[in-house]
Structure formats: structure tokens, C-alpha cells
Structures
1.
Amino acid sequence: MITREEIRKTANEIGLDLVGFTHAGELERIREILEERERCGYLSGMEPGSRDDRICPGLHLEDVKSIIAVGLSYKFPPGGCEKQGDCPKGVLSGFAVGEDYHRVIESRLEQLALYIKSRIKGFRYSIMVDTGPLVDREVAYRAGIGWYGKNCSIICPGFGSGILLGEMLTNIELEPDTPGSGECGACTLCIDTCPTGALIAPYTLNAKKCISYLTQMRGIVPRELRPKMGTSIYGCDRCQQACPHNRDTISFKDRDNAIDLIELLQMDKREFNKKFGTRSLAWRGLNVLKRNAVIALGNFKKEEGLDILASISKHPSPMLRAHAAWAVGRIGGSRAVRILQNMLDCEKDADVRSEAELSLKEVRERRIT
């Protein structure tokens, strides 16, 4: 036999900050929420599996009886750090700093599984960390790890919302914890702070407008949302930085969350893999992050950025050329006009031409007024 206390103690010793237990029944409470968000088009499209896959633990482990939910705390930088200084630096979310948290949590859950296996004959399990089908936040809520804030993040006493989540489905019976409890009261700071209006109402997120999603999506970022991304390269912490529950949890002593935009834009795949290959941001690939760096340069509005943007305007990727045309136009000035005109003289891709034409028009209109 094994007790919950023994599992919790071992998990803490392994380096998992929060541990909770819940039964393996369906996550029925959020079925209607998922259905509604699907109808409204609020899902990002990155969610793995069908709706049933996301709420039915029994589809992922035969004879599943309990789920062990875990949380690993992380820190994020104080709000406004992206505006400090004149150097072209982009910002990484706190969760993207350091080794890929998927690997870290999965490794620690595997260690926990080995411990339980040494105590329980016939122990079987399945581990999920973020990329698994189950809704991690609902599992964490039901296991008592925390409660939902209005920004849809799980808020944990003593840790705020800076928590990375994972779970282990098991075939052993463990007494469930009481679901998380807490409230935001009348506070709407997270909603008020969101630059894109992705938090359309308390507890309701349009994922397709979330900056964290925009930095990870493939292809062309909607033109109207690019200025609101600021200098975000991967992820976004703004709603968490605004949350009063995080006032005692925000701590970033180094500048490891800052990334040199020019260096990133000049990297090849080998250099990228060497520097960032073990981080969570590496999965999305170099060109998507370069696209975000191009947007960040445009939002800096510094004429010095035109040198590298002129180079990117000739990049083999139409996606990068399109965003470069936008960024050049956002910086503006006589040199920007020349770069955009040169693009139009030789560009054949319709989307890139459209971006360059619109940017050129905007630059000329600003010069007139």
C-alpha cells in the first residue's frame, strides 16, 4: 500500500511544488464551456484531440481510477520590462526561460512513477504535460491545486498563477482532494490589461487573440494585432503581471528573459538549436520566432532597425518578407519608402506585395500630414 502523504512528500522532494489528487471521472463541468467556445470560435486550434479526448481520462488509460495533478512554480518578469532601454531586445515569457518545462515535469513525474511502482505491484500510469489531450487546468482545479482566475489561469495560494501543470493518470485508488476555492472579487485588472482584448469577459478567453497564441501560431499575424504584441517573442505575461495574487511571486533577477532581436534574425538553424534547442520555444521553429522579432522591431520604431529589415525583405520565406514590409512601414521615413518600393519592384508573392503596398501608402500619408 501507499498513502497520499507518501506520494506528496516524494513529489515535493523530487521538485514538484504542488500535488493534488482527483478521481478519474469525466471533466463534465467544462463540457459546455468547451462546446460554447468552439461555437464562438474562441479555441486556438492547437488543442490536441477531440472534445471527448479532452474531458475523458478513461480514453487514455485502461482501468484509470485516480489522477495525480502536479504544479511546478516559475517566476516572470515585472510588467513594463520590455520598454526599458533603447536596445532592440525582445521579451520571453517566464515559462520559456530555462529548460523546456515539458521535459522537466515529465522527467519528475517519471521519477514519481518509479517510486510508486516500487511500492505497488501492477501499477500502471500515463503522464501528460500540457501537450496531452486532457485539460490540465481543469484537472488541477478538481485536484485542489488552485482555482480559476478571471484570466482563465489557475491561481494557487502562495504561488499565484506562475504554475506549470502536469498530471499522472493511475490505476490505483486515491482519495480525491476538494476542488480549489478562491475568487477574484470585483477585480478586473487582468481584463483591463490585455492589449488585444483576448479576455472578452471574466473567465472567457478568445485564444486566437491572445498574444501568447499569436507568438506561437504559424503564418501571418493579423495586421491589426501586430502593434499590440509589443516586443513579445514567445508567450505573454501581461495578465499575470497585473494580477494582485502575483505581487509576491514576480521575481526576475537576471535579464535571461530578454532576447537580442538582431542576433535572432541573423541566426541559422544550427545556431538556433545550439542556443535554444532545450527550451520550450524551440518546438515552434526558427522562422516563427524570427517573424515575431520582425514585428518587435517594427514596434520599436527605431530607424536603426531598417538595416536588418531590408535584409529580411529578401528572405526566402514569404511570411518573413510580408512582416518585414509591415515593420518597415511602421518605422517609416524616406529610407522606408525606398525599401518598400524596392520590394514592389521585384516581389511576386501576392500577400507580400499587398503588405508592401499598404505600408507604402501609410508611410506616404504620414509624411504628408
Note: The chain is about 40% helix and 10% strand.
2.
Amino acid sequence: MSFISRSGKALQDIIIDNISTAVLMVDHKLSILYINAAGEMMLDISSKRAVGQSLRHIINVSDAFFNRLETTYSNNHPYSEHELSVGLFSGKELTIDYSVTPIMLPGLSSQLLLEFTSIDRHLRIAHEENLLAQHQATRSLIRGMAHEIKNPLGGLRGAAQLLENELPEPSLKEYTDIIIGEADRLRNLVDRMIGPNNLPKPRLINVHEVIERVRQLVSAEVDNAINLKRDYDPSLPLIIADPDQLIQAILNITRNAILALNDHGTISFRTRPRRQYTIGSHVYRLVLEIQIIDDGPGIAEDLIENIFYPMISGRPDGSGIGLSISQGLINQHKGLIECQSEPGNTVFTILLPLENGLENINGDTQ
């Protein structure tokens, strides 16, 4: 109690500096009077540099934001707003919820207390949960459709074979061959839409060896027309996973990138660790991040949210199955694939938890 009585303000400062919400105080000119540690981290600026500067020189937002702050200073009415996009002059983009409270201190002019809460993480988690739920719903729908389609296809094929044996003219078998061939093609298409149904066969592997295997496979295909770069983090630990399934997932994404580049450009393979990272609704101590990055034309905005659905493709001759299969394979490893794209920079990010429980699928790890 004696510490509190002697150092109440110091204790107050310690509390404010250790909360996760960014706290700023500004005057009537919107000059920064105070910023806590969370604010320094969020806005990428030290307190020493920030104090005394105008808030306009720290964040890049619409004039409407600053106009409303000035109005609040005049009318003393607090307010809050959700999902404001904020640009930092370091180039970083944030999405925040914020509140503004006028503060009247005895003997001092009024000030504005600003509280910023970054919601990018919450938005990402919600997006990932939606992506996982959509993928599971799509797989269930496709499996149901596959059952309804394959049964009559089998009957159609069998009837065509019986009819073939009864035809009086051998030349007429050309037509039954077409029926049988198309029935087989549709069955194979349905099987590909369902994707692999085998459980992973996990073992302890080096993910860089998996990526190098993909590089070797595609190097022969591109014949030096496309530059394949590596940016690996050598500190990454081994991971328990099915190497064949990871190769297939990464290969599908890489081949899509090759087609997008049209024999000219660069594909980069990048690995990094992520600590205390959330995938869907589960927090993992350590997550492996694999990125496949290309500098092609990018993915159209109307496709980006649906590219992991089967039969969705940006190419007229594309089947739209590869990315759906890749997502399914990574989901089996408790992971997720995300995509961000703009012209000149398309990034597919594979997230794999290092403690994914796969060692329990087939008994002990091989």
C-alpha cells in the first residue's frame, strides 16, 4: 500500500503501458501528448518521436476521421467506430476499432483520449473459420453428389456393354464405345473432385526437403524460363507429416503459378515460423508457414474468395480441382491454405501446426 501511495502515478503508468489497447492523448491541434507502449508497437513509432507530432503525420486515414476528432473536441461528445482502415507511413495496413473520449482536467484545456484496438487478428480468425467450414460443407456436398452420380453412371456403362454384345453390326460399336468412354470420364472427374480419401501416413520430415522435391519436379517443366527462388528459415524444426501429400499440395499450387506466369517471371518458396498462432479457432504454440509467391498478373477479385472450391478456375481450360485438393490435403494435417493476390504479387500461404496430432492417426510415428 505504501508503494501505491508514494508512486500512484508510476503504478498507473505501468498499468497503461502493459495493456494491449493502444492509448493516445491529443490536444486541440491533434498533436500527440502521450502514447503508451501498445500504441508504439501498433503504430510503429517510439514515444520520443510521436509526442509533439500531429496525429496526421503518424497515421494515414481519410479526412473524415480527423474532421470528426475536431468536432468531438468542440462538442465534448464521446463516440466509437468499428473496422477503420489505417495506413502507417511504414507501409503497414491495420484494421482497428477505436473510441474517442473528451477529457476535462482541472486547470488544463480539454484533451481527447483515443483508444485503438487492432482487429486484424479477429478478422483473420473469422475468415479462416469460414474458409474451413466452407471447405467441409463443400466436401460433404460433393460426396453426396458423387454417390448419386456414380450409381447411374455404373448402370449406364453396364447397359452399354450389354447392348454392345447384341449389336448386329460391328460398326455400331463405335456408339457404345462413346457411351462407355464418356461414362468413365465422368466417373474419373467425380473421383478427382472428391480428392484423395487416404489418411496421411505421417513421419518426421524436413519440410525443406519436400519443397526441394517440388522444385526439382517443376524445374524440368519450366526449362529455366521461370526463376525459382528459395528463402528458407534454417531454424525450422522437423514436422510430423505425410511427405507425399505435402508434395502434392505444394506442387498443385506451384503449377498454377507456372501457368499464370506464362513462361516468364519468378516463383519464390519462403518458410518462416509463427509462434502462438491461431488457425481457425485453435491456438498453436508453433506453426510452420510455407509461402509460394509469384509475380504474375494476379487472381481476379471475383475469383479470389472462391478459388478453393472445385470447378472454379481463372483459365478457360482449367479444371479448378487442384487447389481444392491441396486445401483438403493440408486440412488433413490440421492446417490451412490462404491466398492474397494483386498484380505482380500472388501469395499462397500454407499454415501447418507443428503439434498436429498426426502421430496418433496410424499409431506410432514411423
Note: Residues 2-118 form a domain with the Beta-Lactamase fold (CATH 3.30.450.20).
3.
Amino acid sequence: MRSRSSWMTLLGAAPVVVLALLLSACGGGGGSASTTANSSTSSNSNGSGSSTSSSGSTVTNTSPSPQVLAANAVRVTVDSGVSNVPNMPFVSITICAPGTSNCQTIDHVLVDTGSWGVRVFASQLPASMSLPQQQDGSGNLVAECMQFFDGYTWGAVKLADVQIAGEKAAALPIQVIDPGYASLPGDCAAVGAARNTPAALQANGILGIGVFKHDCGANCVQQAIPATYYGCGGTSCTSIPLAQTYQVANPVPYFATDNNGSMLSLPTVSGGAPSVSGQLVFGIGTQSDNALGGAQVVGVSPSNGTFTTVQNGTTYTRSIMDSGSTGLFFQTTLMPACASPNSAYYCPSSTQQLSAMIEGVNGTTSAVTFSVGNAMSIAQTDSGDSALPLLAGPAFVTSTVFDWGLPFFYGRNVYAAIEQQSTPGGTGPYVAY
């Protein structure tokens, strides 16, 4: 979601909204197929398309039983959520005033491996909870404009104890989204649409647990980045550089244990399903439930978290692994986009079976097969389903970006190893599956 250089991953942008409207207008039932857990094929990485027939909707729990959760694991659900948007994985998190038992549990917080940091709404915190606001080394009160493809969230950076399952990150800098905080800077407003309510964000918050520790990192330390961090006094806010220690932070590396990464485990979905349950497990190789096993370790750029995908002869050098995206998003000539106003998604004449080669910066190569369905047909036949593994489109991504969104995660254990943290697969950052 967040740009660490010049691109952003997809959350709450037009494709999400378009399909939500499309689904609410249509009815029916049916579905098609998806991939299985930790699978690797020897398919040609150029991935020519072929047709496949539709099959009945099924869900196979390849992940550990969601009824049995260890202290380092939390239940993940893909359901109708806040706005009936498909392919959004949610957890509940607890926010506490630092060092106290004054806490609030917030449900339907989006699990996002494509961003870094915790974001909740001021409107969801009780008036009795007073979270101290973050100050930089000069004593400025810190606020943030968090950028998306087509919009932003705005609010103060505050300190909170963040509890998820049996894990806690103490006095963590988080963004408290609040459209009424201070005076919205003009360069932030110019980013696009305001996502400052749960309905506009389509979630009650964001749990960013990708491969980096902070949401801007070194980019923001030496110079002020427009529409990013601000120092505020009264109602006036000025763009400022910000040391990493003060930035909104990924909670995982600040847990006392199980702090080197995470594993998102979701069941296989064939066709569509009203809802599915899985687990978000913290740590990699730290407990019996998060062993790396035979997962393929794909090294990512230490500056922006990208790797390479080759599909149908096209090389996408800025590929990302992003549970916060509602589909697979990439530009291709293999399939037509749906007719306007639904051109965010692909509408092939029949379900396409494709293949691609994922290439890590560490030299690892991994062949992947996936399927893409007709989004208009899916909206008609799978109306009311929240887990839709066949969604893909060209929305917002450039010709160099392949966004492996939530459909990739169904039927897999997908790991995100955090920068500078030691794991059985080597030192992060990397993704694995």
C-alpha cells in the first residue's frame, strides 16, 4: 500500500469499490478452480492462456484447524467485512494506553503484507483512552498522511500497546486516523480521495506486517517527503523528515518473541465461498506452528520489497506479495479488461489457466500456476461470496508491477521475513511460500 519509492500497492482503490457495486447488483451461484498449498510446477514461465470449465464451490482447510490457536497465532477471516468487499482478510487487535489495562479491541482490521504499521480510527477508541502523541527529536507533534493508489488516510501518530493473540508490542507508534485532526495539508489532500472512515477504507483499520520495520524507512530520515510526515502545532502542520524510531511501525519486530516475521495461512478455495477461516502466525521457525519447512525463499529488494515476475514473455521487475490487494493486478494482452465502468478487472471469455515464474533477488526461481476468471460472470454467479480466487485485473499498476494479491494466498502458507531479522531461511527481507 505504501510507497517506499515511486509505487504503491492496492487497497481501497477504485477496483475494490467497483466490484463491491458490481456484486451488490447481481445474483446467482457457481465457481471455478484455484491453486493448492506450497505447490510448484514445471510449467513454461511464459504462461500462455488456456480455457477451463467451471466447477462447484469448495473450501479445503490445508492450514491448521482454526479452532486450535497457539499463543503466537490469531484467527483470520475472509468475510463480508465492513463494506461487502471480497478478498479482504481480517483479524481483531487490541489497542491499549501504554502500560495500562485501558484497552479497546477492534475487529475487522485488514491483514496487509504489502504495508508496514498499525492504523486505527480515532472514532473507534473510547474517550477515556488517552494515547500520547508521538514527538520527534525537536519536540514536534507528529502526524501522517498515508498514501494509497487513489487516496489517503490522515491523522496523528500516537503511542499504544498493540496486542494480537499472545503477542504485544509496547508503546508502538501507530496512526490514529482522524479527519478532524489539525488542518489537513494541501499536498495530502491532493493525493486523492479521503479514506478517513471505515466505510471509505473498507476496514476498521490496517495491520501492516510486511517485510519492513517502519512505513517510510530511510527515505524519510534525511529529507521531508511531500504528503508523508508532518510536525504540527495548533492547527498548522509542516512537512518534516522523521527518524525511523519515530515512524509508524510494523508491530512484529517489536514483540518480545516470535518477532522475525509472520506466516499467513488460508485454505484452498475453488470457485467462491461466503467466508473462509485461517491463521496469522507470528514468527518464522520460532515455534512448532511456524516452521519454514520446504517453503521457497524469495529474496526481495532491501529498499522497496520487490522481486521479479516473468509472465507471457513480459518481465515485471517491481512485483509484490500483498494480502491487502483484492485480486492479482498486472497488465497483459492475454485477456480483455471488462467493459467500463468495470475495466479495473479482466473479463476473458472463459476462465484462463496461466503460469508465471517468480524470481527473487537471491536467485531463487519458482514456477507458479494461477487462474483468472471473468469478473462480470463471477459477480453474477458468486454473488454474496467473500472469497473469490479468480479475480485479476490491470487496475492502477504500471507495466513493471505484478501485484500478487489475496487470490495467491488461498491454499498456501505465505511468509514475510522482516528486514535485518534472522530466520531459518536467512536474514530478511524475503517472502516465502
Note: Residues 1-66 have pLDDT under 50 and may be disordered.
4.
Amino acid sequence: MAYDLITMGRIGVDLYPLQTGVPLPQVTSFGKFLGGSATNVAVAAARLGRRTAVITRTGDDPFGTYLHEALKGFGVDDRWVTPVPGLPTPVTFCEVFPPDDFPLYFYRQPKAPDLEIDAHELDLDAIREARVFWVTGTGLSEEPSRTATLAALAHRARSGTTVFDLDWRPMFWTEPDAARPFYQEALRHTTVAVGNLDEVEVATGVREPHAAARALLDAGVELAVVKQGPKGVLAVHRDGVTAEVPPLPVNVLNGLGAGDAFGGCLVHGLLAGWDLEKTMRHANAAGAIVASRLECSSAMPTADEIEAAVTVGAVQ
């Protein structure tokens, strides 16, 4: 049976301080969580009842073992999560300064195993048959992951729904101009592009939301989703349908992971055949719920929680 969703990209261990508003040098205790944007999207969709899997790699170490256990616990198939001897599983620390300051510190040296995904090891039939296939910009930042990502997209050939999460992380690139040619190539093979204002600017050279959405459509996608932070989300479909939805009021505890919850619910709405505005409203609500919680993967909301937030118009 085909998967509802296969994601391909980052995985790691998130170590979040259990004291909010405290600088990292003074933090005394941390929580350990499954992390990585592509992986979190798979978790979010699984929480909504979807059959999901992730393609990625870990270190051959205890943290790698933990990630396999966590994936299985969340109901995400880990058959394509393989170890890379000699490279440590990545660890990411953050600081939590609500409502809008959450610095991230990535420990991915000498190289992250998830950038060692090799095109020759991909299950291309499963990728092509999945109802939704999701890739990220980080997967384009280094070889062999770059070639593997583009090969998977080319083989899928826009069958079903293929999502490109622009996922711009400047610390993984020398400069934005270095990323744009690879982003443009990926956009040729995808049907949906998702990104915030910084990310769409990297992909298209345009920052104004409506102009950026048009540029993404011109690059080949059928649906452009531009996240505008406090101004909400703009979604424009090639057929002319547009939805611009404001954010839900929420007391933000940790904004990290909100975009991944948005992504998981976006996939759920696309698979359910919802109209564009309903999909955006529910995805917005999913993101807001996670922003109100400390953790990411284990904070992904259920369908009932999302529906309640949409009905009330706020996160309680």
C-alpha cells in the first residue's frame, strides 16, 4: 500500500531548555526530543492519521537508536533511516525567549549524516507511488544529498503531490545566490512550494508576498504557500484561487516546530481534498498550537485539537 506521505531530509536530537527566558549558559536542564524539519512533518501528519515514512540518515550511535525508537513511537515508518558509520547524530540546542526569539545552535560537524543520503540507495518506486512526497532546501545544500534529492524529484516526475519546503538555513550555505540555482531546479519538479518571506526571496529573488507567489508559480509549481509571520499565510493556486488567512491568537511559548505542524496539516488537508481556505485555516491552527507548547515533535496536535482551535478562533 502506498504511503500517504514520504518526507526526505533532516533528522536529529533537539535539546530544549526546560527553563524559558534563561540564556543558554545559565540553563541547568534540558528535554530531549526528536527533531529535524522533514521528520517533524512526517510526525505531524502521522498524528493526523496518515501513513508516513521518512528518508534520512543518523549516526551509528545511541542518539541514532533513540531517533529510531522515537519514530516508531510516533507511528512513522523508519525503514529508510540508515546509519552512517563515523558521523555523529546531529544535536540542536535552542534558547527560548518568548514570544519571538528562539535562537538555534546546530551541531552537525564534521557533516550531518542526513546529507549523506545517496541516490543509489533510494526506493524510487515507493517515492513515485507515495500520495505526497516532501523535500527540503537543506537537502540541496551538500552532496550527495543534493543529487539524491533532485534524482528523487526527477523520478517522481510530479506524480501525485510533490512539496518543496524551501527551508532556508543560511548556516548551511555560503550565500543565498549559491542556493538559488538548485532551488530553481527543484521547483521544476514540484507541485507545491512552501516558505516564509526569507525563503521565498532566496528561491525567487522576490520578497513581496503576492509577487513571490507569482514567481513560484512561474517557476513551475501549482500551489504557492507564503508564510508571512504575524500577517498570516498567503496561498495562491495556478487556477486563480487565492486564500489569505490571518494567524490565530496564541500565547507563544516556543515558535520552533510551528512550521512543521503547519506542513503536516497542509499535507492532511491536501490529501483530504479540502478547499484552499479550509486547508490554510487548519494548518495555521496546527502551527499555533505547537507554538503554545515547549516541544516540537511530541507537541504535534490531533485533528480534534486543531478543529477546536479553528472553531474557537484561538488556541486555548
Note: The chain is about 35% helix and 20% strand.
